[in-house]
Amino acid sequence: PAGPALLEVKGLHAWYGESHVLHGVDLRVREGETVCLLGRNGAGKTTTLRAILGIVGRRQGGVSFDGRDLTRMPLHGPARVGLGYVPEHRGIFAGLTVAENLMLPPKGAEGGMSVDEIHALFPNLKERRTSPGTKLSGGEQQMLAIARILRTGPKMILLDEPTEGLAPVIVQRIAAALRQLKARGLTVLVVEQNFRFARNIADRFYVMEGGVVVDAFGAQEVEGRLDRLHELLGV
Ligand code: ATP
Q1: Dist. CA 126 → ligand 1 center (Å)
Q2: Is the ipTM of this complex over 0.85?
Q3: What atom of ligand 1 comes closest to residue 44's alpha carbon?
Q4: If you take atom 31 of ligand 1, which residue's CA is the nearest one?
Q5: Atom 16 of ligand 1 has which residue's CA nearest to it?
Q6: pLDDT tens by residue, the chain, 235 residues
Q7: Which of 9, 14, 108, 167 is the most exposed place for a label (fewest CB within 10 A)?
């Protein structure tokens, strides 16, 4: 899709203590796009998401979202302006039931998905609504983590390896849900190692290596890069 960038990252550097991990990351995501960040373990993908949100030791460079400068915001700022985050190890309240987890978004969240809409998107969660978080499968936990963020009505979500460790049939359900969300206009930046999944949902890709973006291409340009991606990611 054409149009201005909803998220724009320019020359982003990040440090954990003395360790300089990002060395000038540039990327942009337009409204309505699903963009996937690929790369080996340690390439800096998770750190890029964390640096966008300001949850690294130190960062330098530009991050703007929906016309706002995220680098000047406090930690809760990005969520308030509609940038949701589902971290790698899933953010759910394990001691609460599925239904209780879905009741938690802050009061006054405008435009968030209703529980009925969540149930339509993830029928598994409807079936499991009285189950405690501790009894959910990995896939159900991932769905619930995404659902909790959707309840808050974000414009865009950052997803960190949503399919890690999940069975192929569950991976397909998550891909189907992301396609439905895209049809509703949600913008997505997703970190993935599962290239089959990524290929199924992404409009565009960025490849990271050593803390910088080393390649960027559209879904229609994947075919010509398969050998290189195979070498880089083992796909
Ligand atoms: P993975 O899939 O393994 O998470 P990644 O591409 O997301 O890979 P990052 O997690 O962003 O990579 O890590 C980038 C680099 O930063 C790695 O060298 C890693 O060891 C280092 N790193 C990550 N988190 C920390 C931390 N909390 N403190 C210090 N160094 C870290």
Answers
A1: 35
A2: yes
A3: 11
A4: 16
A5: 21
A6: 456 899 999 999 999 999 999 999 999 999 999 999 999 999 999 999 999 999 998 999 999 999 999 999 998 899 999 999 999 877 788 889 999 999 866 555 567 899 999 999 999 999 999 999 889 999 999 999 999 999 999 999 999 999 999 999 999 999 999 999 999 999 999 999 888 899 999 999 999 999 999 999 999 998 888 888 888 887 6
A7: 108
* Ligand 1 neighbours by CB, cut-off 6 Å: 16, 19, 21, 39, 41-47
Cα–Cα distance between 133 and 140 in angstroms, integer? 9
- Centre of ligand 1 from the C-alpha of residue 35, in Å: 20
What's the 172 CA to ligand 1 centre distance in angstroms? 27
Global pTM?
Answer: 0.94
